[in-house]
Specification:
Length: 299
């Protein structure tokens, strides 16, 4: 949590920007502009629609990230929006997280996982990856605690191992949440208040320098605003944002790299890359990113 608090302090802005693209949200002109590239990249005609939407989602996200990277500390992609597109969407989710991280943003993966045993341990690999490989590029994830401690413990352990964070849902704003969360317990407290006490206990041994635990409580609203969005500190002069990237996509050197993306199939320095050959959707997204970057003048 220390990284997030530092990012909030650097930007003097406790906001998080959601990256939740949908077909209704992304302008149809953006989706249509990728038709030819996607059609030439996918292996089967059945893949075209989902791949085209996925590539458009990435371009939409990239544009937002470029616009807000120096203004806000964090972004929060909601994985369901990407999973709805199948494998192409999951690929774009990881590309979005990686790209945001490369621009210096704290990435909160809004996955809201909740299960027990080996299933929870598998979900927790969002945090500690696979060996030395981190396929998700998230600094933290959201989790659902309403299965109890054994549903959270794997995430707590994975977060400690990878030095990452979790945000635990406590009180949500959906209309029917009161059916469970507002029930009275024998001691007079509400269910959600008891859950908040559990969260405090899960994070008691991992309090960071600013006094926050990597196990944070989240009040989920329509935008899943976590508790740290209400964080405040005494006014301090805005610090110059320190560039933590080797380069930025707005720089001329990076533009040259992106233009060549389709040939080597990887971006270098400030680009998403994998050891294995990228999927057809990834190839199309990289190609589209190069085309957009090459045609957009420097600000």
């Amino acid at each position: 949590m220390d990284r997030l608090i530092e990012a909030i302090d650097n930007t003097q802005n406790p906001s998080v920007v959601g990256l939740d693209p949908t077909e209704a949200l992304v302008p149809p002109q953006v989706v249509a502009s990728f038709a030819d590239e996607v059609r030439d990249s996918v292996e089967s005609p059945e893949e075209v629609e989902s791949a085209q939407l996925a590539v458009a989602y990435f371009e939409y996200n990239r544009t937002i990230i470029d616009a807000i990277a120096d203004i806000v500390p964090a972004v929060k992609p909601q994985i369901a929006m990407y999973e709805a597109l199948g494998p192409a969407g999951v690929d774009i989710y990881t590309m979005t997280c990686e790209y945001a991280a490369q621009q210096g943003l704290y990435v909160l993966g809004d996955i809201k996982r909740g299960d027990i045993g080996s299933t929870a341990a598998a979900y927790a690999h969002h945090l500690n990856g696979v060996g030395d490989f981190d396929p998700w590029h998230e600094d933290a994830v959201t989790v659902n605690p309403y299965l109890g401690t054994d549903g959270i413990t794997p995430f707590v352990e994975a977060a400690a191992e990878a030095d990452k964070d979790i945000f635990v849902l406590v009180r949500t704003s959906n209309p029917s949440s009161s059916e469970l969360q507002m029930l009275d317990l024998a001691d007079g407290t509400k269910v959600y208040e008891h859950v908040a006490d559990l969260v405090e206990g899960w994070g008691a041994e991992t309090i960071g320098r600013p006094g926050h635990s990597p196990r944070g409580a989240a009040r989920c609203s329509a935008t899943a605003t976590p508790a740290w969005a209400r964080w405040s500190a005494p006014p301090t002069p805005r610090k110059a944002r320190r560039c933590v990237n080797v380069c930025r996509t707005r720089s001329s050197s990076c533009r040259a790299t992106v233009r060549r993306a389709a040939r080597p199939r990887t971006w270098q320095a400030c680009s998403t890359s994998r050891a294995a050959a990228p999927s057809s959707t990834r190839r199309a997204a990289l190609s589209a990113h190069g085309r957009r970057a090459a045609s957009t003048p420097n600000p």
